[in-house]
Design a protein that fits this description.
The relative contact order is 0.18. The protein is elongated and about 45 Å long. Strands 1, 2, 3, 4, 5, 6 and 7 form a 7-stranded antiparallel sheet that branches. The protein has no helices and 7 strands. It has about 110 residues and is mainly β.
């Protein structure tokens, strides 16, 4: 979108420790990231964001907030780490809050 913001789509699989191995969950995440100037560095970027996680197997949707940073390895690759807090609401009105968008990843730019 610009040098200070971007839209990101992620797909990932997660497994809960209390579920059997065949109960992996597929998530799709749509995030709006806003880069900040909290750290004055050309290779280290910090950002905050808004996101929506969609869980397909259980038909859940979860809006949330996230905070992260990325480190540029080269012009095409970066490592990022972030923490995201999401609130999920199912079709029956049940809700849960969790760190569903938290972790470490590799960003590839084309």
């Amino acid at each position: 979108m610009s040098n200070t913001s971007e839209l990101r789509v992620l797909g990932f699989v997660t497994t809960y420790s209390n579920l059997s191995p065949h109960d992996n969950q597929l998530f799709l995440d749509l995030s709006y990231l806003r880069y900040t100037n909290w750290v004055n560095s050309e290779t280290l970027n910090t950002y905050w964001g808004l996101n929506v996680n969609m869980l397909f197997e259980d038909s859940l949707i979860g809006p949330g907030l996230l905070l992260g940073s990325s480190y540029q390895l080269s012009s095409k690759f970066a490592i990022f780490a972030e923490v995201g807090l999401n609130a999920f609401i199912d079709g029956n009105g049940n809700s849960t809050i969790g760190l569903h968008n938290s972790g470490v990843g590799l960003k590839v730019s084309f």
